[in-house]
Design brief:
- The protein is built from ten helices and eight strands.
- Helix 1 packs across helix 7, helix 3 (about 75-80) packs across helix 4 (about 90-105) and helix 9 (about 180-190) crosses helix 10 (about 190-205).
- The chain has a four-stranded parallel β-sheet with strand order 3-2-1-4.
- It has a domain at about 5-165: Rossmann fold (3-Layer(aba) Sandwich).
- About 40% of the residues are buried.
- The termini are far apart.
- With about 240 residues, the protein is α/β, with parallel strands linked by helices.
- About 40% of the residues lie in helices and about 10% in strands.
Length: about 240
């Protein structure tokens, strides 16, 4: 049988995408679910991964880049002396895209699935233009991000803790693709140690991670009361793709 690789990011959408792929194609295809572990993610993401494994009755494999055995975004930034740009971030390039490429060198997969939801059709189309064709299971089924949360709740799965803490996705804490003052002050409030580490490293590298009053500024200069877009309106994601709107 042909193989479908589902890339699971410890987020709600990719969990439901894996479920739907198994439901729709499990009898006709070999389904493999793969995760790229990143140490800067909240530890509760691993609890969610284990819960999803039991829900799917399917082992979730790992794909890593041996150049970075620690699977650490911080290590990537130190080694590359670069943290983020409008075109993406090196942590995604090294720990996700390169890890996927290496996995594909040693494993056969005719088709791939990512967790693009119904309202993300434009992002899916951009990915297909620049990367590769995908099976858009959530888009075809017209499943939105909110409906993914509902499906998981009805299945008795508890979302990763970062969602309950008000973060817009299951990314690493202190994701360097975020530029909103709202986001960074949220990190400062809920994860002050992480915030100070990003201040230190971005200062050493010379990266300006936050946009305030129309200009990029060092994180160290962000006023504690600065606000931008509401957290729920933010749209930056860290899957195999890497972009920020």
């Amino acid at each position: 049988m042909e193989t479908i690789a589902v890339w699971f990011s410890c987020g709600a959408a990719s969990a439901v995408a894996a479920m739907k792929t198994i439901e729709l194609y499990g009898s006709t295809h070999n389904i493999r679910v793969i995760n790229n572990p990143i140490v800067e993610e909240d530890p509760d993401n691993r609890r969610f991964l284990a819960d999803v494994e039991r829900w799917l009755n399917c082992e979730i494999e790992e794909a890593t880049n041996p150049k970075y055995p620690s699977c650490s975004a911080v290590s990537v930034w130190d080694r590359r002396r670069f943290m983020s740009s409008p075109q993406g971030a090196p942590c995604t390039s090294e720990l996700k895209k390169e890890a996927r490429r290496l996995w594909e060198e040693n494993n056969r997969a005719e088709h791939h699935v990512l967790g693009f939801t119904y309202e993300e059709k434009a992002r899916h189309e951009r990915f297909v233009l620049t990367e590769r064709p995908l099976i858009p299971v959530l888009i075809d089924e017209k499943i939105t991000k909110g409906e993914c949360y509902q499906i998981l709740s009805e299945a008795g799965l508890e979302l990763p803790r970062v969602y309950r803490m008000g973060y817009p996705n299951g990314n690493c804490i202190g994701c360097v693709k975020a530029t909103s003052p709202t986001y960074w002050n949220h990190v400062r409030k809920h994860h002050p140690v992480v915030f100070e580490e990003r201040v230190r490293q971005s200062g050493a590298i010379g990266a300006k991670l936050v946009r305030y009053k129309g200009e990029r500024i060092p994180l160290s200069e962000l006023p504690i009361d600065a606000v931008g877009r509401p957290m729920k309106d933010m749209d930056f994601e860290c899957g195999i793709f890497c972009e920020e709107k």
